[in-house]
């Protein structure tokens, strides 16, 4: 019932000079890199991929390249075997392009870009973090876990890696392992809303609903438009029989993201529980438009909510 809230690591041009070999990196490549970031901000993912591709091409170097030859905007006259990448900047461009491809659900392309980044910089923790997300999107859970383990081994104070590994462990049913990782992520920084969001769902799995509410509160404070944090907090309130708080949270989640199936699902059940079945019908209709496959499960939950209402027992 939970959507993954994964963390990524974009590389910016604000990193120390040792990361980018600026003396070797052409100005045009840096310009394309910056342009890609602007296009991402504007939602132009295809344009960002194109800009990163140009940055990669221009920051690559030809084996035995004659410096007296004027460098154009492409290497179309050379075979791929003649190109040897020696600039660490190129790894960062591959790493960022990986994330753009991930956003377009091109998980295979994202993995391939991170592979290239790691070929150039084998110890780049963010590339392992980002590749793990793409592998997870492909359903390669064990490979994703190994990449997160590797990211953490390279960078012990990497909160994003702990947070993502905690999420992965939670999805695999390792609730205690998830809690350990998410606690560590929050120890490292208390400024990442996704870590609180993930821990909130971990506390729900542990039936520690008050603690879950506190974590969702923190996530919402840090990211007021995080729709799934409202859905999570609503779920915790629902388990605490606080329908007067749960229903507004589900409503806010839907306002922020009308595609959240579970917000309709849970708001409908909450309304059934308090006897407002007429409004619940509309919620269940919207839920099944998005996920028709939930009908049998939902029908059973509706009957359970009615029974629990009669006996004044909490929804489970």
Describe what you observe in this structure:
With 316 residues, this protein is mainly alpha-helical. The chain has three domains: 1-149, Alpha Horseshoe (Serine Threonine Protein Phosphatase 5, Tetratricopeptide repeat); 156-221, Serine Threonine Protein Phosphatase 5, Tetratricopeptide repeat (Alpha Horseshoe); 225-316, Alpha Horseshoe (Serine Threonine Protein Phosphatase 5, Tetratricopeptide repeat). Helix content is 67%, strand content 1%. It is built from 15 helices and two strands. It has helices at residues 27-41, 45-59, 88-103, 107-120, 125-137, 141-154, 159-171, 175-188, 193-205, 209-222, 227-239, 243-256, 261-273, 277-290, 295-311; strands at residues 61-62, 83-84. A two-stranded antiparallel ribbon has the order 1-2. The longest helix has 17 residues, at 295-311. It starts with 26 loop residues before the first helix and ends in a 5-residue tail after the last helix. The model is unreliable at 14-23 and 62-83 (pLDDT under 50).
Could you list some keywords that capture this structure?
316 residues, mainly alpha, Serine Threonine Protein Phosphatase 5, Tetratricopeptide repeat, two-stranded antiparallel ribbon, 15 helices, 2 strands, 67% helix, 1% strand
Percentage of residues in strands: under 5%
Question: Which structural category fits the helices and strands?
Answer: mainly alpha
Number of strands: 2
Q: Kindly report the CATH topology of the largest domain.
A: Serine Threonine Protein Phosphatase 5, Tetratricopeptide repeat
Rg from alpha-carbon coordinates: 24 Å
Helix percent reads: 55-70%
Provide the CATH architecture of the largest domain: Alpha Horseshoe
Shape: elongated
The average pLDDT score comes to 87
Instruction: State the CATH superfamily name of the largest domain.
Output: Tetratricopeptide repeat domain
Low-confidence stretches: 14-23, 62-83
Provide the number of structural domains: 3
Q: State the distance separating the first and last CA atoms.
A: 13 Å
Q: How can the largest sheet be summarized? A: 2 strands, antiparallel
Alpha plus pi helix count? 15
Top CATH class of the largest domain: Mainly Alpha
């Amino acid at each position: 019932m939970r959507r993954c809230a994964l963390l990524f690591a974009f590389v910016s041009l604000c990193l120390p000079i040792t990361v980018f070999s600026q003396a070797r990196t052409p100005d045009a490549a840096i310009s394309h890199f910056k342009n890609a970031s602007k296009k991402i901000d504007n939602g132009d993912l295809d344009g960002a991929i194109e800009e990163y591709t140009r940055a990669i091409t221009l920051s690559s170097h030809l084996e035995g390249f004659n410096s007296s030859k004027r460098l154009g905007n492409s290497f179309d006259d050379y075979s791929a075997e003649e190109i040897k990448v020696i600039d660490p900047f190129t790894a960062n461009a591959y790493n960022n392009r990986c994330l753009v491809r991930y956003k377009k659900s091109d998980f295979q392309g994202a993995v391939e870009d991170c592979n290239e980044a790691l070929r150039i910089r084998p110890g780049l923790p963010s590339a392992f973090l980002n590749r793990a997300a793409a592998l997870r999107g492909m359903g390669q859970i064990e490979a994703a876990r190994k990449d997160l383990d590797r990211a953490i081994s390279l960078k012990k104070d990497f909160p994003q890696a702990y947070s993502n590994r905690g999420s992965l462990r939670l999805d695999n049913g390792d609730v205690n392992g998830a809690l350990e990782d998410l606690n560590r992520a929050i120890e490292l920084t208390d400024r990442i809303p996704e870590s609180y969001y993930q821990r909130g769902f971990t506390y729900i799995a542990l039936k520690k609903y008050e603690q879950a509410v506190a974590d969702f509160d923190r996530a919402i404070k840090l990211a007021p438009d995080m729709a799934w944090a409202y859905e999570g907090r609503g779920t915790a309130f629902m388990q605490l029989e606080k329908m007067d708080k749960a229903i507004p949270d589900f409503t806010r989640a839907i306002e922020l993201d009308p595609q959240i199936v579970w917000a309709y699902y849970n708001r409908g059940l909450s309304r059934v529980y308090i006897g407002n079945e007429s409004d619940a019908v509309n919620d269940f209709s919207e839920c099944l438009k998005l996920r028709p496959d939930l009908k049998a499960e939902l029908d059973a939950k509706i009957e359970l909510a009615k029974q629990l209402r009669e006996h004044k027992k909490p929804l489970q």
